[in-house]
Structure formats: structure tokens, C-alpha cells
Write a structure and sequence with these properties.
heterodimer; A: about 160 residues; alpha+beta; five-stranded mixed beta sheet; B: about 675 residues; 18 helices; globular
């Protein structure tokens, strides 16, 4: 067992973890933050994306023991302080960017990371950035639209496609 | 003009809020107190004789609670098939047993051999590696036509061969169809493969079994599209649990695509094992397991022929399809290439004679069942490809050939047992050609060619029969379970409305749709979002059970806030009107916590609600428990047993439990 201390969604947490404990397991089982989903176990689907020290990573392939001192943000930490949906979350609802909701936390976390490094992405840039996030319901189109809308861009032309 | 409220208005999905904030409640998010974990040791050969499963070393591994093998399930039913097809000679299909854990043989990669239940998932996995298997690998059959050769290895030794059924539809038309082909001016023949696929919803399957020793009740939490079908099949055919002793809960489900319709061995195992070890048992599929255990889709090999007269009118269609069932019959597998496929073979065309022949075949592969459209896409794919090929062979425009043969008079009775009530296929074709700018295709193709690329154009018409009903008819076609629907709308005394339907949402947004009729739904209504097959309810159906509350804000009844809110432990809205109301509410909240704990954090649990009402009645005696608001005792006849549902009247001192059980 290794003791790790992290800041998760602004709160400091200290836990003993096994060397093999994945960050995704640590969040889901250790902290009961079940919004981070595990869909593939192999870093392909992106349902487990969280932010570690400001960077989007797949939490199913990071070891919790490696992240002592890290600052972690999960989907549970993405709403506005008053509990209302953030701009990105609201855009997903407005543009029907989700159906079953299982991939959605990872999509929102990836979208937030994209808009942080590229505040006005093109449609092609959004699609390329989402390469590591799989959605089985929507066909991606409305997800792309939601992210472009969240960046403040007019998505009228996309809507007509 | 778009509506701005009520049914038909565009509205944002209410379930999105919890999904977008990480508050969805999927099955893997459920952990019960004292829960153990199971890991299945699965076959890595496609076909083998199981000589020995030596678990002795594994049993001593850290954390191991118990290891189950096929022997533990010898007295337990196998997984049933929910549809019986009768072949073209009037005989029932061959229907092999499907044990929960392999007995004697393994028949596909992924077939479960042993199940290790341990304190942690990792310990269960580790111990499974210490199980020693003695498997004699046998020749496997994968190709369907080879599987039907007389000398082919048999997937099931006790069957006459690997043919499940040889189905003809409509058999009486066969001679007339053959005659039409003999007289045809032109025959177009197409052979094609509709490939097998793995459905892969984003959420892997999960099952959590629980057993209440005190009441002898079992609960299964599962990633299901239709918990009622699971309850019926697992309760009645596998484990022998009466419906009123079995609850199946499917909370938020992360996509289904068909593969979460079916009853799986892991569900039965977790429910069974929880009773055996007196602890909840949880299984979470890995993605790798999903590929070899979730029922696959399609896998047809087809030869289809079209007969035309000298004027290019379609005169007959004849098909021969080999449909792969895999190693066992999954829940609805036999229906897919037959009733869900043959009945769509007329397409949009006025073809007077059709004969569909389907040979369903057992192979050493993962079972195949309904996937996205299930049989109908397979029918359309072959028919439309065939029409295109005929147009090419005849040198005519594929659109013109379609228009010439379109059904234009309605109602129209097809020769495959379906009547179309209405349609205007020429109008949709006109619209389609305009939308795709077909007239501009040649120029686009020329430009592509100049750029060194190829450009093609495909036209496809599609007739869909979404779902099948009524259940009485479907039963005559061989269905043994489900395919009916029911709903309950309950108006609560304080004005809340609860809509309970059999239909389950796994992404479709039922909560939003069903709340649309609720008036001021945008501010007040809220979906309760539980989906469960409940022992007091008979919602067995095609798509499960959605439980939904529309709250109208305490404007009716006593104005005492919303009772549903209290029972769900969500929020306290509006003042109590004192006396009875306050007492009831306190009790409801208190008992809700009981329910909450029991189901591991399902805050909106129906169990909590029921117990709240019952216990309220118990405790209050002739006081608050006799409040007219609570006195709606409901009796439901369930498998010839009377069950007490809901609150009403003191029951502890008067032996209502006994009274209501006398009907057995």
C-alpha cells in the first residue's frame, strides 16, 4: 500500500492505494465519484477521461500511486459553483450531444481540454481532437456541434448539414 | 408553427442533467454492503470436451469465498430460448440445453466453465488462473455450410445435426414461385454475406445479485433493455423463483443496441450465487469479455433471386439464407431470420409471389441474436442490392425499375403475411432525388475521376416494421415471452403524477417524452429514473419498465408538498399541512433510508417507496396509517399468488400477510 494525497475537484483527499490501483478505480471505488466511466479497459474509448494537473488523460491507464500531489478534476467538478451546467455541459444538452450518457463524461472532459488549448477550434479540429473518445449513440455530429457552440461559434451551417 | 409546451413541443432532455454532471446511476455504480465479486473462467477453445475442472488449488487462494462449476448447476434450469420456430415440415426447431456453466462440453470461445467468487475482483481473477482444466479440444465448425455436412462435428451431441430449423415462408407458395421462375423472361441472382458483428454498447454488461434471507427475496441489478423479460425467463425457467420473490432492476443503461435484451448466464449466476453464499455477488464485464459473451448480430449467407417478365415487372422473389445461431439459442435468436426477416422481403415492391427459405445453423461461435433492426436490415440489404443488380443486368435506370414496381395502391397485402396500410413511395423518391441532386451525379463523378477517385451512387428503399404486436399473434408465431406492453398512471393525492411504463430507456430519453404531457414540465416535472421489474407488476414486455414521476407541485389534494419527493429522498417542497401529513412524511423519510441502505444507494428506489407506505401503515395503526391518502391497498394476481402492494390499514396485528397469502 502506498499513501497518496490528491486534490480532487478542489478537495484534498488522502488514501492508501495498492500499487496496481488505477486512477479510474481510485475515483470510482475509493472516492465514489462514479461519473468517470470505464468502457474498454484499454485506453481506447475515452469514457474515463479526467484532467490531471490541467491535462486530459485516460484514468484507466494511470496508476493512482503515481499521482501523489496531483490536482484532479472529474466530471463531478465541471458544473458551475452554483450547481448549474457549465457552458460546455449546457451546449451538450442544447444540441442533443448525448443519448445514453455513458461516454458523455469523457466527451465533456475532452471538450474542456480542447477549448482550453484552442478556444476557437474548427470543425475538423474538434473531430480530430475527439479521436480518443468513442460514442456509440450519437454519430458524433451533435457532439461536434455542441463543442463548437460552446466555443461561441455559430453552428447554424452545421445544423443544416 | 412550433409548439412551445406540451406534447409535440421541442424540449431539452431532463435526463441529460444527471448524465452531464456525472450523476447517472449505471449498474456498475451500484455496490451493495458485503458484496463479493465473481470472475468467470471461460473457454479459450471453440469446441472441447471437459474432462476435469480442478479447483483445489484455487480454493486456497487469498480471498476466495467459493468456486462454482457446472456441477453446482446440475439441478438448475438452463437459459431458455424465448421463441420457438416451426420448420417447413411442421416440426419444432432443435433446441439444445444452454447451461449457466458448461457441463461436459464447451461450445464456443467464451463459454463459462467456472466462476470464482472472492472478496475482491482481483482476488477472483487471480484464483481463476489457478484452476486446472483438462479439456480435450475437438474439431470446431464455424462455416455454416460446412456445419451442415453429414460428417461435420456436432456442436450438440444430443441433436441430430447442426441444423436448428429449415423454415419456409410461405411454404404453400413455393411451387408457384418455382413456376414463376421457370417462366421468367429474366432472372437476377445475387449471393452475399451479411457479416457477423459484435454490438459493443459503450457500457459493458454488469450484474449484481442480492438475496434477502429474511424474506427469501432475490434482487438482480442488471444492464438490461427489458428487466421484465429477464425476470420472467430467469425466475420461471432458470432459477425457479416466483415472480413475487424476484425483482430485476435496470437503472441507467449505457446503450443496448439489442444485445442487452437477452437473458445471460451471468445474470442467473449472480442471482443464484448470492443466495448460496448469502452475500451480494457482482460481475462487471471487461471489454474483452463483451466480445465473446454479448450476443452478436447478423451473420447471414444469402442467395436471392428475382424473376422479371419481359416488361421488367417483378414476378417472383426466392431466397435461401443460412443464418448462424452460434453455439446456443440466445433469447430471441430464432425469430430474427424468420419472422423479423421473411415478412419484410416484399420491400416496397408489387411482387406477387415470394418464397423465403432460412436454414438456421449451430456453429462453435458466440450466439447470435437481435441487433439494431434485427432481420429487417438483412432483408432490405439483400433485396435492394438485388434490384440494383437487376437494373444493371437489364441496362435500365435503377430508379425507374423501382418506380415501375413500386406498390401504389393501398392497403396492399404482400405475399409475406404483412399488409401495408398506406404509403407514397414515388413522393419519397422524388424528394430523395432532389435532396441528393441526382441529376448532378454524372458531373460529380467526372470530377472525381479527374481527381483520380471513384464515386458511386446507391439508392435504397426501406420498409421497416418496428416491433411486433399484438402479443397474442406474436405468441402464435412462437414467442414465449414478452412483446406486450402496459402502463400505469398514478395520480397521487398531493398532485404528483407517476407514469410507469414497461418501456425502458437506454438512451432514447423516455423520461423527457413521457413528461411532455405534464404541462409545466420544464420547471416542475422530474423523472424518477428507475427501471425495474417489480414483483407486484406485470409489465413483461419488449423493452422493460420505465418508472417516471411527473410532479405538478402540490397544487392538488392537501397542498402538502409532493409525497413522491419525500419518499424518494430528493427534496422537501412546500409546507406540511400538519397532523397526518407531517407524521406520514416523517415516517416516509425514515423508512426511505432503510430502503436506501438495502439497495446500495439507489436513492430513488421503488423498494424504499413501497416499504415506506407499508411500514407507515404498520406503525401508525389506526392513526396516520389509515390516512385516506395511504389506504389504496392493491392486490395483484401474480402467478396465482396474491401479493399485497402498497400501504393501507394496519397489518402487523391482524395478520394481513397470512390473509393475503391464502390464495396460493
Amino acid at each position: 500500500m502506498t499513501q497518496v494525497t490528491m486534490t480532487v475537484n478542489g478537495k484534498t483527499v488522502t488514501r492508501d492505494v495498492e500499487g496496481r490501483t488505477l486512477l479510474a478505480e481510485f475515483l470510482r471505488e475509493g472516492l465514489r465519484l462514479t461519473g468517470t466511466h470505464i468502457g474498454c479497459d484499454t485506453s481506447q474509448c475515452g469514457a474515463c477521461v479526467v484532467h490531471v494537473n490541467g491535462n486530459a488523460i485516460k484514468s484507466c491507464t494511470a496508476l493512482a500511486a503515481d499521482l501523489d500531489g496531483a490536482s484532479v478534476t472529474t466530471i463531478e467538478g465541471m458544473a458551475n459553483p452554483d450547481g448549474s451546467l457549465s457552458v460546455i455541459q449546457q451546449a451538450f444538452q442544447d444540441h442533443h450531444g448525448l443519448q445514453c450518457g455513458f461516454c458523455t463524461p469523457g466527451m465533456v472532459m475532452s471538450a474542456a481540454a480542447l477549448l482550453k488549448e484552442n478556444p476557437k477550434p474548427t470543425e475538423a479540429e474538434v473531430r480530430a481532437y475527439l479521436e480518443g473518445n468513442i460514442c456509440r449513440c450519437t454519430g458524433y455530429h451533435n457532439i461536434v456541434k455542441a463543442i463548437l457552440a460552446a466555443s461561441g461559434q455559430d453552428v447554424g451551417a452545421i445544423a443544416a448539414e | 408553427m412550433p409548439k412551445d409546451h406540451g406534447i409535440g413541443a421541442s424540449s431539452k432532455r431532463r435526463e441529460d442533467i444527471r448524465f452531464l454532471t456525472g450523476q447517472g446511476r449505471y449498474t456498475d455504480d451500484i455496490n451493495l454492503h458485503g458484496q463479493a465479486y465473481v470472475h468467470f473462467l471461460r473457454s479459450d477453445v471453440a469446441h472441447g470436451r471437459l474432462h476435469k475442472v480442478d479447483t483445489s488449488a484455487a480454493e486456497g487462494m487469498p480471498g476466495v469465498i467459493r468456486i462454482f462449476t457446472g456441477k453446482d448447476f446440475e439441478g438448475v434450469g438452463g437459459l431458455p430460448c424465448g421463441w420457438q420456430v416451426t420448420d417447413r415440415h411442421g416440426n419444432p426447431m432443435q433446441e439444445p440445453p444452454h447451461p449457466v456453466l458448461a457441463q461436459g462440453k464447451v461450445r464456443h470461445v467464451g463459454d463459462p466453465i467456472a466462476a470464482v467468487v472472492a472478496e475482491t475482483a482481483a482476488e477472483a481473477r487471480n484464483a481463476a488462473e489457478a484452476i486446472v482444466l483438462d479439456i480435450e479440444e475437438l474439431p470446431a465448425v464455424v462455416d455454416m455450410k460446412k456445419a451442415l455436412r453429414p460428417d461435420a462435428p456436432k456442436v450438440h451431441d444430443e441433436l441430430t445435426g447442426n441444423l436448428c430449423y429449415d423454415w419456409g415462408f410461405v411454404e404453400e407458395n413455393k411451387a408457384a414461385v418455382d413456376e414463376a421462375f421457370a417462366k421468367a423472361a429474366h432472372v437476377t441472382t445475387l449471393e452475399l454475406v451479411n457479416n457477423r458483428l459484435a454490438p459493443n454498447p459503450m457500457e459493458p454488461r454488469v450484474a449484481v445479485g442480492d438475496y434477502n434471507t429474511g424474506t427469501d427475496e432475490s434482487t438482480l441489478y442488471t444492464t438490461s433493455q427489458n428487466p421484465h423479460v429477464i425476470r420472467l425467463l430467469m425466475g420461471a425457467f432458470v432459477l425457479g423463483i416466483p415472480e413475487h420473490k424476484l425483482r430485476v432492476v435496470a437503472p441507467d443503461v449505457g446503450g443496448g443496441f439489442g444485445t442487452k435484451i437477452f437473458h445471460y448466464a451471468e445474470e442467473a449466476f449472480c442471482t443464484f450465487a448470492a443466495k448460496q453464499i448469502r452475500r451480494p455477488v457482482k460481475w462487471t464485464s471487461s471489454r474483452s469479455e463483451a466480445f465473446i459473451t454479448d450476443a452478436h448480430g447478423r451473420d447471414h449467407v444469402t442467395k436471392i433471386e428475382l424473376a422479371l417478365d419481359a416488361q421488367n415487372n417483378f414476378t417472383a422473389i426466392r431466397t435461401e439464407t443460412y443464418a448462424n445461431m452460434g453455439a446456443y439459442l440466445s433469447t430471441f435468436a430464432p425469430s430474427v431470420p424468420t419472422w423479423l426477416h421473411g415478412t419484410l422481403m416484399a420491400g416496397n415492391y408489387r411482387t406477387p409471389l415470394i418464397y423465403v427459405n432460412v436454414k438456421a445453423v449451430f456453429t462453435n461461435t458466440v450466439p447470435v441474436d437481435a441487433y439494431r433492426g434485427a432481420g429487417r436490415p438483412e432483408a432490405t440489404f439483400q433485396l435492394e442490392r438485388l434490384v440494383d443488380k437487376a437494373a444493371r443486368e437489364l441496362g435500365v435506370d435503377p430508379v425507374a425499375l423501382r418506380r415501375q414496381n413500386f406498390i401504389t395502391q393501398f392497403p396492399y397485402a404482400t405475399p409475406v403475411a404483412v399488409e401495408y396500410d398506406t404509403g407514397d413511395y414515388n413522393a419519397t423518391m422524388d424528394k430523395l432525388l432532389e435532396m441528393i441532386d441526382r441529376d448532378g451525379f454524372e458531373a460529380r463523378a467526372a470530377k472525381s475521376k479527374a481527381d483520380g477517385k471513384l464515386r458511386g451512387l446507391g439508392i435504397n428503399c426501406y420498409i421497416e416494421a418496428c416491433g411486433i404486436a399484438p402479443s397474442a399473434l406474436v405468441g402464435q408465431l412462437g414467442a414465449r415471452a414478452g412483446l406486450y406492453e402496459s402502463a400505469t398512471v398514478r395520480v397521487n393525492a398531493t398532485g404528483g403524477i407517476v407514469v410507469m411504463t414497461g418501456s425502458h430507456s437506454h438512451g432514447q430519453g423516455h423520461e423527457t417524452v413521457l413528461c411532455a404531457g405534464g404541462g409545466r414540465h420544464d420547471r416542475r416535472a422530474r423523472g424518477a429514473g428507475g427501471n425495474r421489474a417489480w414483483r407486484h407488476r406485470q409489465h413483461a414486455d419488449g423493452h422493460g419498465h420505465l418508472w417516471l414521476a411527473l410532479h405538478r407541485g402540490g397544487r392538488l389534494g392537501h397542498g402538502a408538498g409532493d409525497r413522491e419527493d419525500h419518499q424518494q429522498g430528493q427534496e422537501d417542497r412546500g409546507p406540511s399541512d400538519g397532523g397526518l401529513g407531517r407524521r406520514y412524511r416523517a415516517e416516509g423519510r425514515q423508512v426511505h433510508r432503510r430502503g436506501h441502505r438495502q439497495v446500495g444507494g439507489l436513492g430513488r428506489c421503488h423498494a424504499g417507496r413501497l416499504r415506506a407506505a407499508q411500514l407507515s401503515a404498520d406503525r401508525a395503526g389506526t392513526g396516520a396509517g389509515r390516512d385516506g391518502l395511504l389506504r389504496s391497498q392493491q392486490l395483484h394476481l401474480s402467478r396465482r399468488r396474491l401479493c399485497l402492494r402498497g400501504g393501507g390499514g394496519p397489518r402487523d396485528r391482524q395478520g394481513h400477510d397470512l390473509l393475503f397469502c391464502r390464495g396460493r
